[in-house]
Write a structure and sequence with these properties.
little secondary structure, Cysteine Rich Protein, two-stranded antiparallel sheet, two-stranded antiparallel ribbon, 16 strands, 11% helix
């Protein structure tokens, strides 16, 4: 059997007798190192509290030396760190019911003999008067943070934050600030400051006539003119179409000016417009897209509502089968269309490596086929070709190349 003799003490093993000395920590300049030991703190081991870096091993409670983390650490006013229990003992509130073992109230000898609980003193902070204009608007007392309620930028006591008329307790949802710098509930605010007249105020579900006839009621009713265009605004501030005052409930914006909703229509065909259909014209009017195109859109061959080409001088349109201009001043050299030389505008330009072209001129120089970015080939002679014509004119030549090169032929 194994007796374990190989585990017995081996006399050949040499045990060092050197004393264990704590590892020395390089001291940092005053105010820059660990607040607990004063040594340098490197990024891999730092723990932050109060904007200062601690060693992880030094990040302990200043009283019970309990290890701390970011959840349990409490920063004391003496610039040290504590666990929650020690912080409560040292800096927490003191008195009846506070501190360690405060589950039962402790009194002096007189209280114990009479078997009475200690008397609690209730302090009415309303009797502590504040400086004029700085206290609670209702009672004038000093308002402390524990009982502060804000309204209209002024602090109120929580018990004073009530409706002035019905004394209903208020909160931030139902409080209404009145023009008399006091607070009201919604109902009292409506009665006192809301609109008045027929159909308004509490209990106005039906109108009461007090024996008046219909003609007398109609004669006493105020006149209401729903046409706000008759209310003229100062010059340059009203609706550009009618000049009337534009109110927020009916305004429409276009080109930085406000229009009545019923005036916001096309100046030509009077079609009602919205933000998707309105076009601001250079004449400071608004137009629908069709009328804007007729008045301010591009003109010439191929534009407008003419599916066929029309001549303005009576010539037959057969004279212009390609719809290209043949008169007028040409563009400067290198500035116009590479095919016809006339000016190219942004709405019709096509760009290639060698220059800009009209959309109607953007075709193969040999076969006339219309081109696009997928079949365009820029030739060294400055022209553009389709793939087939480019291969015939500038592609490789010789045996096996060219049209019908499926079989090799001998010269």
């Amino acid at each position: 059997m194994d007796t374990g003799s190989h585990l017995q003490e081996n006399s050949d093993v040499v045990i060092s007798g050197a004393p264990l000395i704590a590892k020395a920590i390089a001291k940092a300049p005053a105010g820059e190192g660990c607040p607990r030991c004063g040594g340098y703190v490197y990024a891999a081991e730092q723990m932050l509290a109060r904007g200062r870096a601690f060693h992880k091993s030094c990040f302990k409670c200043g009283v019970c030396t309990k290890g701390l983390d970011s959840i349990s650490v409490c920063e004391g006013p003496d610039k040290d760190i504590y666990c929650r229990v020690c912080y409560g003992k040292k800096f927490g509130p003191k008195g009846y019911g506070y501190g360690q073992g405060g589950g039962t109230l402790q009194s002096d000898i007189i209280g114990l003999e009479s078997d009475q609980a200690p008397r609690t003193t209730v302090i009415d902070t309303a009797v502590i008067k504040a400086a004029p204009g700085q206290g609670c608007p209702r009672c004038g007392g000093v308002v402390f943070a524990a009982e502060e309620v804000l309204a209209r930028g002024r602090p109120w006591h929580r018990k004073c934050f009530k409706c002035k008329d019905c004394h209903k307790t208020l909160d931030s949802i139902i409080a209404c600030d009145g023009p008399d710098r006091d607070v009201y509930c919604k109902t009292c605010y409506g009665k006192k400051w809301g609109p008045h007249g027929y159909g308004f105020a509490c209990g106005s579900g039906f109108l009461q006539t007090d024996g008046l006839t219909e003609d007398e009621i109609s004669a006493s009713r105020p006149f209401y003119n729903p046409d706000t265009t008759s209310i003229k605004a100062p010059p340059g501030q009203g609706c550009p179409r009618c000049g009337g005052m534009v109110f927020a409930a009916e305004q429409q914006l276009a080109k930085g000016t406000m229009w009545h909703k019923k005036c916001f229509n096309c100046a030509e065909c009077h079609r009602p417009l919205d933000s998707m259909l309105a076009c601001d014209g250079p004449d400071r009017e608004i137009h629908c897209r069709a009328c804007y195109g007729k008045l301010f859109g591009p003109k010439g061959f191929g534009y407008g509502h003419a599916p066929t080409l029309m001549s303005t001088e009576g010539q037959s349109t057969l004279l212009f089968p390609d719809a290209r201009p043949n008169s007028g001043r040409k563009a400067a050299p290198g500035k116009g269309c590479s095919r016809c030389g006339y000016a190219v505008y942004a709405a019709e330009q096509m760009i290639s490596k060698n220059g800009i072209w009209h959309k109607r001129c953007f075709s193969c120089s040999d076969c006339g086929k219309s081109l696009d970015s997928t079949n365009l080939n820029d030739a060294p002679n400055g022209e553009i070709y389709c793939r087939g014509c480019y291969g015939r004119s500038f592609g490789p030549k010789g045996v096996g190349f060219g049209m019908g090169a499926g079989a090799l032929t001998m010269a």
